[in-house]
Amino acid sequence: MARNLDPKCKLCRREGIKLFLKGEKCLSPKCSLLKRNYPPGIHGSTSSFKRTSSYNKQLREKQKAKRLYQLLEKQFKNYHFKAVKMSGDSSENILRFLETRFDNIVYRLGFVSSRDTARQLINHGHFLVNGKKVSIPSYQVKVGDVITVNKKVLEKAFWKNRLPQFGKTETMGWLSFDPANLTGKMVSLPKKEEVPVPFDMTLILEFYSR
Q1: Does one domain contain both 45 and 4?
Q2: Is residue 95 located within the same domain as residue 105?
Q3: pTM of the model
Q4: What domain range includes position 24?
Q5: Looking at CB atoms within 10 Å, which of 51, 88, 130, 138 has the fewest?
């Protein structure tokens, strides 16, 4: 599966915001954005994050969204194409495609501290959907689907260290999480106002409609 292998801290610095690509490190004093709050590159320290044109603003918003959800251009563009063909608010449609990805749901439920970790564990069969193993990070979770940790992997060191952290992350209103039974559920489709994202979906739609 193709993926972006660029250094994650540089991606955050390029956008000028925390994208939380490295999980707990992003919340610590070791965060690169705190140490070097300027774009990467030889001229980074003398440049700024100011957007000089409407195109540049649209491009940067699109890049933020792509990098936040760890997607390639083709994947992101396909979500946009599907969203605008559907009825309803296109910006909400595309956000739902992004938020209901299996790797994002695992992250939002608090099973892991980053989407990248969620994707890796999904690929290795650590999660079940409605009792069946699903190893596709882009799988679209549906309302009513129940996500559980595969009991076969609970003896691994990762889960022994992670279990005490369960229940400490606030769960979004469209999800429910039972830390005692290692179970999460999508109870409804996410609404635009329920999803805190650091980008403007309207500008992204404008970018692709040029």
Answers
A1: yes
A2: no
A3: 0.85
A4: 1-50
A5: 88
